[in-house]
Amino acid sequence: MRRRRVLVAGAASAVLLGTGCAQASPAATTARPGTTRVASSAAAAGAAGSWGRAIAVPGLVALNTGRNADVLSVSCSAAGSCAAGGYYQNHGKHGFVVSEVGGRWRRAIEVPGLQALPKGGSQVSAVSCGSPGFCAAGGYFGNHSRNPYDIITGRGFVAVERNGVWGRAVGVPGLGALNRGGNAEVSSVSCASRGSCAAVGFYTDSGDHQQGFVAIEQSGVWGKAVEVPGLGNLNTSGSAEVSSVSCASPGNCAAGGKYSDASGEQAFVVSEQNGSWGIAQQVAANLSTGPVFVDTVSCGSPGNCAAGGEFNKASAGAPSRYQAFVISEVNGTWAAAHAVAGTLSCCGDAVVTSVSCASAGNCAAGGQFDYGGYNSAFLVNEKNGGWGKLMYVPGLNAVSRDAYLSSVSCASAGNCTAGGNHDISAWVASEKNGVWGKETAVPGLDAVEVVSVSCASAGSCAAGGSYVVGTDRQVRQGFVTQ
């Protein structure tokens, strides 16, 4: 499975990508090199949304006897109609789902059918909703390791919600025949409409090589998983994974991830048009002297998508660094990847962890980079097809030295939401009419991380993650926002 780099000490244990060391950061009022100064005063303040209180996921506390739970994915198809998923501990790791109906969250349940599948740990890694009451979830099951976080023997599953009722989890059709090496996972799902979804991830073939797959749901029926076309030819060293998928309409999706060849780890993107997947193509080879990854993909309309991740860059007389990049698909053709403007000149290791496109050429992306030994969260906007410079999340420098961005969601052009964590607290920030407002703490609970945000319309969003209980801050529970 793809290597996950460890967070800086002191940050919440979210599944994010970043590195750093420990030194003092510059004053919050100082604009750092290569960045765009954020809008200030009333303009920035007016962009912030009004968040409802975070609440414990109903029913999850009772399930979580092992004292460790988290919401890993949230998806909203309409205001007050969302779904979320993640895991909890109870003599092992268990995947759960929970639905919001009419603005009220129901009780969390273990994904139906998981107990009937091969025993071991399970997790819901991704959730996506095509319309109210019609969602899909994916993840892994069947971990027999003593370590509940280890998925050495995991297998991929999907589960579908219809008319507000979650059906039984099933192994991804056809994945068992591909997965001769005994390790597979669904890493991402995307639903364009009810009964029309895509799931992606990885499996291990009979030669113990990791390969990437895609599976499509049409009219409510999941087809067989297949290897991403052309990826096997690229993946000559046998370590591939599809990390993200996004569907703009039924039969029109895009996905991305990584593979390995004689030169090391490389990134790829692949597009589906009118129900047919094209050939996987390499990304950002001209940028890199080392590993390249696509971590996130989003489509604003059929054939118009964006992806982001990181590449390794070495310069004469200086150590290699991971740098953040974005790449856009325009009318079905992927343009050249380029580094996020402002990161090459100012920053240490950097990564784009999330991207979201509201329409063709109008997206937002975010992530974090190392500056002066601390991780700083950043945002970058694409407007009418042009990517701007990175900007700091407004207000974060004033409250924290160490900050991470885990998720971005855009409801319409210039109206987005982002979330993440700083030190040991969670934050959210909203963009209104193209202006990002100041970050704000998630109200209601002692939230330590926002892992996922989703916006059904401008000003109507949901967030999920984890909060801590007790003075020792060792018990983690999952939260969602009202």
Question: Overview of this structure, please?
Answer:
The chain has 6 helices and 39 strands. It has 482 residues and is mainly β. The strands form 8 sheets. Strands 2, 3, 4, 5 and 6 form a 5-stranded antiparallel β-sheet that branches. The two termini are 35 Å apart. 57% of the residues are buried.
Please provide a brief summary of the model:
By secondary structure, the chain is mainly β.
The chain-level structural class is mainly beta
Count of alpha and pi helical runs: 6
Q: What is the approximate shape? A: globular
Give the termini separation: 35 Å
The percent of residues in helical segments reads under 10%
Using only C-alpha atoms, the radius of gyration works out to 20 Å
Low-confidence stretches: 1-48, 144-152
What key phrases describe this protein's structure?
five-stranded antiparallel beta sheet; disordered N terminus; 54% strand; mainly beta; 6% helix; 482 residues; globular; 6 helices
Write the layout of secondary structure elements.
Layout: H1 41-47, E1 54-56, H2 60-63, E2 70-78, E3 81-89, E4 93-101, E5 104-105, E6 109-110, E7 121-131, E8 134-143, E9 155-162, E10 165-166, E11 170-171, H3 175-178, E12 185-193, E13 196-204, E14 210-218, E15 221-222, E16 226-227, H4 231-234, E17 241-249, E18 252-261, E19 264-273, E20 276-277, E21 281-283, E22 292-301, E23 304-313, E24 321-330, E25 333-334, E26 338-339, H5 343-346, E27 350-359, E28 362-371, E29 374-383, E30 386-387, E31 391-392, H6 396-399, E32 403-412, E33 415-422, E34 425-432, E35 435-436, E36 440-441, E37 447-457, E38 460-469, E39 475-481
Antiparallel strand pairs: 1-39, 2-3, 3-4, 4-5, 4-6, 7-8, 8-9, 9-10, 9-11, 12-13, 13-14, 14-15, 14-16, 17-18, 18-19, 19-20, 19-21, 22-23, 23-24, 24-25, 24-26, 27-28, 28-29, 29-30, 29-31, 32-33, 33-34, 34-35, 34-36, 37-38, 38-39
